Amino acid sequence: MKTRISDLAVFGGAPCFSDQLHVGRPNIGNRESLMRRINDMLDRRWLTNRGLYVQEFENEVAKLLGVEHCIAICNGTVALEIAARALGLCGEVILPSFTFVATAHALMWQGITPVFCDIDTKTFVLDPRRVEELITPKTTGIVGVHLWGIPCAIRELSAIARKHRLKLMFDAAHAFACSFEGIAIGNFGDAEVFSFHATKILNTFEGGAIVTNNSELAAKIRSMKNFGFSGYDEVSWLGTNGKMSEISAAMGLTGLESLDEFIRVNLRNYEVYRCGLEGVSGLQVLTYDISRRSNFQYVAIEIDEIAAGISRNQVMEILWAENVLARRYFYPGCHRMEPYGTLMPDVGSRLSGTEWLAQRILVLPTGTAIQRDDIEKICDLIRFSVVHGGEIATKMKANVFQAVVLNQGDSCPAA
Fold first, then answer.
1. pTM recorded for the entire structure
2. How far apart are CA 52 and CA 57, in angstroms?
3. CA distance to 12, 28, 75, 190, 239, per residue, from 242 (Å)
């Protein structure tokens, strides 16, 4: 517990944690179950090419979500690329800038122009009103992003897609085991894409999946992710190698067995954060709609610099010095990253909500790798930093100024 400002590691005090606490350290599941599957896989010498574990994993995911088709892919980004190509996306596609850059890159990589749309700052996801304003004769689709498990405005986006005859795809990387109006995420749009990266609620070491209720689309995706093969010696489409390996599927099956436990731990962690940060001036913890199933994989806080007396970036710097590696999501917005910042230098003028939120959000460590006591210490650090926000912010700025002056002095030529 820090009792004086000088106790903070950013000012030379001892860090609160000896080991680094990361956002999204992997959930592992039962190691014995995993090793049994790996040994079985090695005994059978079937390591890839849609082996028994990949088939079982696809079936289990489809059953859990209530979808007709699940196609396992080597990672979430390739899954987005294959889904976009299978849907025939081209020209312009509308998506949020407030997302991980892979969402935009998956389109741009294929020569599709990402058209960045603003978000609703209350829900953090695409604002349907802004989407319709951006539709042009070149628009072929919309990619919505379910953020932190919060579903998009699915009904409104679906209506817009139907009205303008556009394809609708959802990036559901954050939303595995979440729901919308009692229906599992995965059942909406033309297709939805999941990531099973190590940081996600369910991981396959590295992996992803495309889910859909469209049988024709599913067959096309299966072919495309296997070089375009539709038969033993028959290639029907331009394809790539997007196959998931057997060892990845074994990890996924092991994780599925412990999924309810992962969610239970995440919910516990979320409640500890919510209670520990309740009443902190200028700080708001992301709230989840209890009427929807959620995985609670992300604990995001919104920091109002004026009310808190300290900025989001300063709080992050304090936490990092204490070995709490909190993350800015999604800073600074895809539109300010390359190549988009150069190709679309003025697009930020229509993304006021995105830019506003990107300066305020901080995501905190959670998951099965963190303990309740750790979270309580993190809450104490944040609360202490905000209570003394004005003084700490002033001292941090003074330290930065002093460092700049010293560096300038070091660079001066000798007399």
1. 0.94
2. 9
3. 48, 24, 8, 20, 9
CA-based torsion, 242, 86, 297, 101: positive or negative: positive
Q: What are phi and psi of 180, to 5 degrees?
A: -140, 120
87 vs 25, 82, 219, 224, 415, CA distance in Å? 33, 8, 12, 11, 68
Closest CA to 172 of 302, 83, 68: 83
CA–CA separation, 24 and 15 (whole Å) = 21
> Which tokens belong to 259?
């999924």
The CATH class, in words, for 259-326+365-399 is alpha beta
Sign of CA dihedral 387, 323, 329, 296: negative
Tell me the per-residue pLDDT of 129-170, one tens digit each, with 9 for 90 and over: 999 999 999 999 999 999 999 999 999 999 999 999 999 999
Q: Which residue in this structure is represented by tokens 């699915």?
A: 154
Cβ 26 vs Cβ 198: under 8 Å: yes
31-257: CATH class: alpha beta
> Cα–chain-centroid distance for residue 408?
40
- Residue spans of the domains in the chain: they are 31-257, 259-326+365-399
Burial of 154 (0-12, 13-18, 19+ CB in 10 A): buried
- Which of these, 207, 209, 246, 240, lies nearest to 225 by C-alpha position? 240
DSSP 245: P
Q: Is the peptide bond preceding residue 339 cis, with omega within 30 degrees of 0?
A: yes
pLDDT tens by residue, 307-351:
999 999 999 999 999 999 999 999 999 999 999 999 999 999 999
